[in-house]
Amino acid sequence: MKTTLTVFFKEVRENLRDKRTITSALIYGPLIGPLIFVMIINTVLTRELNKADQPIKVPVIGAQYAPNMVDALKQQGLLPQPAIADPEAAVRNQDADVVLRIPADFGKSWRNGETSQVELIYDSSQRDTNSSIERVRRMVETYARHQGAMRLVARGLAPTMMAPVSVDDRDQSTPQSRAGQLFAIMPYFFVLTIFMGGMYLAIDLTAGERERQSLEPLFANPVARWKILLGKLGAICVFSLTSLLISVIAFGVCGHFLPTERLGMVLNLGPSFAGQVLLIMLPLVMLLASLQTLVAAFAKSYREAQTYLSILMMVPALPSVLLSVMPVKVSGWMYDIPLLGQQVGITQLLRGEPLTALQISHCVVSGVLVAAVATLVTAWVYRSERLAISS
Amino acid sequence: MIEVKDLRKYFGDVKAVDGVSFTARDGEITGLLGPNGAGKTTTLRMLYTLMQPDNGQVLVDGIDVARDAQAVRRQLGVLPDARGLYKRLTARENIDYFAHLQGMSDTLLRTRREHLIKALDMGDIADRRTEGFSQGQRVKTAIARALVHDPRNVILDEPTNGLDVMATRGLRQFMRHLKEEGRCVLFSSHIMQEVAALCDRIVVIAHGRVVADETPDALRAQTGEANLEDAFVKIIGSEEGLAA
Fold first, then answer.
1. Other beta carbons within 10 Å of A215
2. Of A116, A163, A281, A361, which residue is 20 to 30 A from A236 by alpha carbon distance?
3. Do B101 and A221 lie within an 8 Å CB cutoff?
4. Read out DSSP for B82-144?
5. Are B34 and B222 in contact (CB under 8 A)?
6. Which residues in chain B are contacts of A388 at CB distance < 8 A?
7. Does the distance separating the beta carbons of B76 and A385 come in below 8 Å?
8. Which residues in chain B are contacts of A231 at CB distance < 8 A?
9. CB contact under 8 A, A220 and B78
10. Are the C-beta atoms of residues B31 and B41 closer than 8 Å to each other?
């Protein structure tokens, strides 16, 4: 115990004197996530909200053939623009999101009581055009429904004749659950923060120490290597845990600056959220510290360790990516898989549904078990003769 | 006292150490002399339990390395070939770290540390961070760190490597001092003059084997060469001739 503490305090003290470790573990790592988050979400939200409120500019070809319809569309917020010569090229080049084309025989079909056709020209593969297209389509359909009803009334029929079935939406989502969907990437940010917080230490304490040739004299001391390893792991854990703590607090603060309520969403990143996140992330802190040390122990140099660890950094992204492309139903066993458990657990918290004690204990127990196995394997690798030898 | 019996270590087909036996006695300086790549560092690494021998036995003050490696490490002060310091810690903090790992009490630690800082004449650098230390300052710190627990046996791997004349003289003086205190001092070197100037006993190693184990005088007498350097070349050379 004394040996482990000696190693622990020495590693913490030494690394607190290292600017790079400090910036990476305590500033860059934990704060970059919340910052990026606020920036992206703010940009997206502001743009969507603006789009919904503002009149939409749409080039209209053949406006003279349907003056009444164009007037009606204007009232719904459409600003007709002058006709353009090549609408197909214009949408492909993103000069216009959508173009409305009214054929010359529009009036003739109208008078005959036939269906008059108008064309919406757009390129659905272009980003950001979908909301514009939908808005224009809805405007035209509203106008058509309205005119249809007028025709029925003129012939003495009830407009409900045209609508034998009507749909009434009963959305069961809550303001919080909608937010949960939007913030699904957040668990990955937390894992990444732990990773970044411990990475430089993990490299420095094994591969770095060997490269600087101080591992051999260290192992000449009359202490068991596993005790040294535990002290080093402890130091890594403290740094990554601090990193996570800063990140969780930063997210809590940033949550206040997001205009989520304007989208009808509620995001609660308060103390209760923070506490539960820290609790279920704790085993991951230990697991990642062991894994990083294990990987660094195989590397021959600092640089090599950095390369290996940046590959390892992809692994925690897997559950996030898988869950976002395959909408799997969350079931009980998922809480038993480290990383996946944390992913579904934090997503659940973001949706405003508290975690049960059982779910938390599954998350924590399975995580601690796997972390213990990883530590044992690392301790076994630490016993190897080659580990200490730098040349 | 360090006793080595028929020590062997193979890396694949390479016989790095191939049957080395010798004894380093208390109150004597024993020099392990041999060309680069002769197996000196590997031999020493097995003595301070960093490597496991494939064969043979090492006894330090009667304790078998294979039995109780930790007890052996407690009896040893080691300056390995790798002498990396913690560059963000001061020289004093470097020494304290190892003292704590040796389980020393704070009072004892302070006495021993200050004694070594004085003996190695490093008072002016003791509170500086070791980053940017000269080679000589680094070796001094590494030696102080290795000897802080007052070990009976001292193993130094090429201690004067990279040192200038003044630092080398200082270090030799220090080694004689260790001998006078009754310690068993074992060091390796590939420099003839150094071994001649210091040693009570010379163990010459070539190709992983002991080719001579004598006092300097006996070595001169055995080869019929008045000068030790010629004696050294003759021993190594004739051994190579035999191997061919």
1. 24
2. A361
3. yes
4. -----TTSBHHHHHHHHHHHTT--HHHHHHHHHHHHHHTT-TTTTTSBSTT--HHHHHHHHHH
5. no
6. 50
7. no
8. none
9. yes
10. no
* Radius of gyration, alpha carbons of chain B: 18
Residue with structure tokens 């055995």? B222
A258's tokens: 């997001």
Helices (H) and strands (E) in chain A, counts: 18, 4
On whether the CB atoms of residues B210 and B20 are closer than 8 A, the answer is: yes
Token look-up 């080679």 returns B135
Q: Does B81 touch chain A (CB under 8 A)?
A: yes
CA distance A217 to B101: 12
- A326/chain B closest Cα distance in angstroms: 48
Preferred mutation among A3, A9, A10, A19 to probe B, highest tally of B CBs within 10 A = A10
Residues of chain B contacting residue A217, judged by C-beta atoms under 8 Å apart? 78-80, 82-84, 98, 142, 145-146
Phi then psi dihedrals of residue A120, to 5 deg = -105, 120
Question: Do residue B82 and residue A2 have CB atoms under 8 angstroms apart?
Answer: no
Q: Which of B171, B152, B179, B244 is nearest to B207 (CA)?
A: B244
Instruction: Please answer whether residues A208 and A304 qualify as being in contact, where contact means their C-beta atoms are separated by less than 8 angstroms.
Output: no
Contact residues, chain A, for B93 at CB < 8 Å = 10, 13
User: Which amino acid is it at A138?
Assistant: R
B16 to chain A, any CB pair closer than 8 A? The answer is no
Interface size between A and B, measured as CB pairs under 8 A: 82
CB-based contacts of A376, cutoff 8 Å, min separation 6: none
For residue A329, the tally of other CB atoms under 10 A from its CB is: 5
B contact test, residue of A12, A211, A214, A219 with most B CBs within 10 A: A214
CA distance B98 to chain A (A): 7
d(Cα A174, Cα A171) in Å, to the nearest integer?
Answer: 8
Which one-letter amino acid corresponds to residue A126?
Answer: Q
Statement: residue B16 has pLDDT above 60: yes
B98–A385 C-beta distance less than 8 A: no
Listed residue (B24, B81, B87) closest to B50, CA to CA: B81
Question: Is this prediction's ipTM beyond 0.95?
Answer: no
**Tens of pLDDT along chain A (391 residues)?**
889 999 999 999 999 998 888 888 888 888 888 888 788 777 777 776 666 667 888 999 998 998 889 999 898 888 898 888 888 888 888 888 899 999 999 888 888 888 888 999 998 887 777 888 888 899 999 999 888 888 888 888 888 877 888 888 887 777 777 776 667 778 888 888 898 888 889 999 999 898 888 999 999 999 999 999 999 999 999 999 999 999 999 888 887 777 777 767 777 788 888 999 999 999 999 999 999 999 999 888 889 999 999 888 888 777 777 776 776 777 888 888 888 888 889 888 888 888 899 999 999 999 999 999 999 999 999 988 888 776 5
Interface membership of A20 toward B (CB under 8 Å): no
* Rounded distance between C-alpha atoms, residue B89 and residue B191, angstroms: 32
Pairing of strands B76-79, B153-157: parallel
Cβ pair B84:A18 closer than 8 A: no
Question: B240: distance to nearest CA of chain A, Å?
Answer: 26
Residue-by-residue DSSP string for A223-248: S-HHHHHHHHHHHHHHHHHHHHHHHH
Distances (CA, A) of B36 to A18, B32, B205, B207: 37, 12, 10, 10
* B101 contacts A6? CB cut-off 8 A: yes
Closest partner residue to A14 among B83, B86, B101, by Cβ? Answer: B86
